[in-house]
Every structure is written in structure tokens, then in C-alpha cells.
Amino acid sequence: MLIYLRVLKESFNFAINALKNNKLRTMLSLLGVTIGIFSIIAVLAAVDSLEKEIKGSLSSLDQSTMIVTRFSFGPTEVPQWKRQQFPDVTYEEYEDISRNLPDLEAASFVLNVPNEPIKYQENTANDVGIAAVSYEYYDIEALQLEEGRFFNQAESVRGAPVIILGHDVAESLFPGGDPMGKRVRLYGRKFTVIGLLEKMGQGLFGGGHDSNVFVPVNAVRRIYGSNSRGTFPQIVIKPEDGVDNAEFVALLEQQIRNNRGLRREEINNFFVNQLKGFTDFIDNITGQMNFIGLIISGFSLLVGGFGIANIMFVSVKERTNLIGIQKSLGAKNRFILFQFLFEAVILAVIGGLIGLFLVWVISLLASQFTGDFEFVLSPWNLFIGTAVSAVIGLISGIVPAISASKLDPVEAIRTGM
User: Are 213 and 301 contained in the same domain?
Assistant: First the structure.
């Protein structure tokens, strides 16, 4: 074990000397490894960051949650021209599901509408996301209130002019003040503030709930009407714990089909989008992105491997005399082999560490310029970068190391002289 540690130490010294004595040649040789590792880890970090933000945006919803709409959240075999003819889900269908669907924990009718400005006296919060929902949504997403309450069933059904503010909206309208009980203006009407959401921080799709407000869906339905194609109605459904998922979806689809009078041979003119299926779809997409990125980055590593091999062949030639002397003094072939292998690995790892450092710097800068979107450089990615560098060094150095270990000591000394 001690001899291998000594070989490692000597190899490290040789690698450092190669960097010092032939800076330009060595750096050009390492450039391929640096670029390759940079490309691979940058792709992995970017995809991991994107996946983390998307799943973080969905983390407040249970994985069993389902969303019924006329749109599919993933790939579908239904042609686009046919999907465009699908009708929107209706408030009446939501009521029927709430009353009659077995094993249902909660169902909420949600109306996605354009962002609007909200005013309070001379203060205005622009581009506010309007979450028009029925009262059950509070339990489905498990929203956290800093103060006040969510609207109840009676307020939801009659479309009471009440509103729950996100943290950023409250800060814009009431800087340093208490919003509870105040009346803000939305859609040209006055809504009473009855609740304030806890600060959540921004996500991939904007400010999250911090830049949103929640209002009873029926209050917004009066403004937009029930048949506006400019809105995006959906029914958010959460089954009870432990329910058989396939059976629950089958019962849900059959109930909607019965309400719409669909014949047996007709396809569903709606989609039951399962959140678990959506996250699986995200995993599939990010996996494909990783694979494509790794293939492209592999070419850079291939060039880097040739660079390491080249510098190792040059190193063998420059140290032929030294190799002959070592072998004449009793150094075994494996000692010479490991000496050059370790040197190749150390050089490759140095190039990889430079690549990792560049990824780290760029991730910090990117996080600064993209607000609260955080680029993740995980310890696992760092390990992958270092391990790949070592493997590239090992593969690139194996042929030069073998050629060095097989040199005849007399011929090596004579060649060196």
C-alpha cells in the first residue's frame, strides 16, 4: 500500500511539473476535458434545476390529485382538430361530481382567467394572478394563511365579494399596513380582504401564490359568463386516501360521460389529467434532455481524451531515460504502469475540476440574473464530474502507460542519452 501511495505522490508531482514546465501545451490538452466536463455538468445542473422548480410548483398538491379539462397535460392520441371541438367542463358537472362521486375527498371548480390590476386608494398591484376557485380548493392544495381565513361554502356559492391576498400583492397595496378588512378594487368592484397567504417565494412560473389572489369562482363567473372561451375552466379532484386509482378514474369518467350523453362507441370529449402522470411525463422529458445533452457532451470528452493521451505519449518520450534508470534499479513494470496511469488520471481530474469550477461560477451568476430561480449544482453532479474525469484519464492513459511499462531498460537508457 505504501508503494502505491508513493507512486501516487510522484505521479502528482510529475503532473504538476508538466503543468508548470509546459503550461500552454498542457492547458490546451486539458481544454477538451474541461469543456466536456463543463458541458455534461452544465446540462445535468440545468435539467435538475428545471425539474426541481417544476415539481416545487406542484409540491403543494397531492400526487393523487386529478384535473378534469378539455385539454391534455401530456401527449395524447386524440388529433388536435378533434380536441379543439371538446366542450369546457361546467360548474354543473362539478356540482354533480361533488354530490355523487364515491370515494371523493374534495372537488373544486377552478376558472383560469387573465391577470388583472388591483387597487387600494392610490396604490396599485399590476399583473396580479386571479385564482377563481370554489371553497374546497383550500383543502385540496393545503394553502397556508398568515392571517384571516379562506372563504366558506356559503360565500363561495353566492359569489361573495371577498378576497385572499398573496404576500407580494398585500405588500404592494398595503406597504407596512394591515390589509385585513380593507376593501380593494378588482374588475371595477370592491372586494373585502378576509385573508392573507404566507410568503412562498417565487417559482418557475412566476411569483407563485405570492403574486396571486383568491376569490370565489362564482364572483368571477358573473363577470366572464359560463360560456367564455377566453377562460380555462377545470375541475380539481382529490380522491380519498387508499382508493384504487384506476377504479376511481373509471367511475369519474363514466359519470361525466353519462352527464354528457356520450354513446358507448364515442370517445371521451374531456381529459382526466393525473398529477402523478404529469410528474412522470416531466421525468421522461428531463431524462431525454439529459440523454441528448450527454451525447453531445461526449464528443467534447472524446476530444479531451485524445488530448490527455497525446500529452502522456509526449511525457513517456521525454522521460524514457528516467524509465530506463528506474527499471534498471529494480522498478517493476506495474510500478511504471501505475505511475503513468496516475499521472493521466490526475491531469484529467484537474481539467474536470476546472470545468466544475466554471459551472459553479456560471450557476451563481445565472441564479442572480434569474431572480429566485435557483440553479442546482448537487453533490451528486460534482461526484459525476470528478468520476467521469478520472475515467477519461484512465482510458486515455492506459496505452501510453503500457508502452512505458514495456520499455527495455537498456534501450530506454540508450534512447534517452
Answer: no
Determine the structural domain holding residue 114 and report its residue range: 87-269
The segment with the largest mean pLDDT, out of 69-83, 121-135, 223-237, 286-300, is 121-135
Phi/psi zone of residue 103: left (φ > 0), alpha (ψ -120 to 50 degrees), beta?
A: left
pLDDT at 327 over 80: no
Read off the pLDDT of each residue in 138-163 and give the average, rounded to a whole number: 90
The count of domains in the chain is 2
Let me know whether 112 and 259 are in one domain. yes
Report the alpha-carbon distance of residue 291 to residue 273 in Å, rounded. 27
User: What's this model's pTM, rounded to 2 decimal places?
Assistant: 0.60
Same-domain pairing of 231 and 343: no
Nearest to 281 by CA among 13, 102, 71, 72: 72
Residue 140 in any domain: the answer is: yes
Q: Are 255 and 106 members of one domain?
A: yes
User: 375, 366 in Cβ contact below 8 A?
Assistant: yes
**264 and 289 both lie in a single domain:** no
* Tens of pLDDT, residues 283-296: 677 777 767 767 77
Place of cell 394572478: 129
| Confidence class for position 204, pLDDT limits 50, 70, 90 | very low
The model's pLDDT over 63-79, given as tens digits with 9 standing for 90+, comes to: 678 899 988 877 788 88
Closest alpha carbon to 162 in 171, 175, 153: 153
For residues 92 and 231, membership in a common domain is answered with yes
DSSP annotation of 206 reads B
Residue type, position 65, single letter: T
Q: Across the chain, which distance is largest between two alpha carbons, in Å?
A: 100
Instruction: Look at residues 105, 29, 1 and name the one whose alpha carbon lies nearest to residue 351.
Output: 29
252 & 355 share domain: no
Domain end residue (candidates: 221, 249, 269): 269
What is the tens place of the pLDDT at every residue in 369-388?
A: 655 556 767 777 778 788 88
- d(C-alpha 397, C-alpha 313), whole Å: 9
